[in-house]
Amino acid sequence: MAKHKINVKWNDGTPTDTGVYLVAIRHISGFGSYDYLYWDGKQWLDDTTPNVTGWAVVTEILNQIDADWPQSDKKADLEFEEYRKNHGGSASENDFVEVE
User: Fold this and answer.
1) What is the per-residue pLDDT for 49?
2) For the chain, which has fewer Cβ within 10 Å, the N-terminal or C-terminal residue?
3) What pLDDT score does 50 carry?
4) What whole-number distance in Å separates Cα of residue 60 and Cα of residue 53?
5) 71: alpha, beta or left, given left = phi > 0 and alpha = psi -120 to 50?
């Protein structure tokens, strides 16, 4: 399956219009992920509905795109790369590294 680069204009803060948005989420563990959330004009709604009529494996969809990551939140990635550089590249993708 071919991968396609998608140019995403990431915005800070909150939207002005209600609707569904692709969001970048930084988890407390330090990992990041993409999701789709509904903005109701006041808050992000992330409750799931019991009436799911279809679904798709997200990794199969995300493997087709490369949306980069919001520039304003790349600090953790840069710190991890600096750690790998300072440790001779010995930190693998599977290592847990805490950065502050």
Assistant:
1) 45
2) C
3) 46
4) 19
5) alpha
| Helix H or strand E encompassing 85 | helix 75-86
Closest residue by Cα to residue 44 from 70, 71, 20, 10:
20
Q: Which residue has the tokens 């010995």?
A: 90
Element spanning 45, H or E? strand 44-45
pTM of the model as a whole: 0.57
Closest CA to 62 of 37, 33, 39, 38: 33
Which pLDDT tens digit goes with each residue over 30-54? 888 888 888 999 888 875 544 454 5
Helix H, strand E, coil C: the string for 17-38 is CCEEEEEEEECCCCCEEEEEEE
User: Residue 48 has what DSSP assignment?
Assistant: P
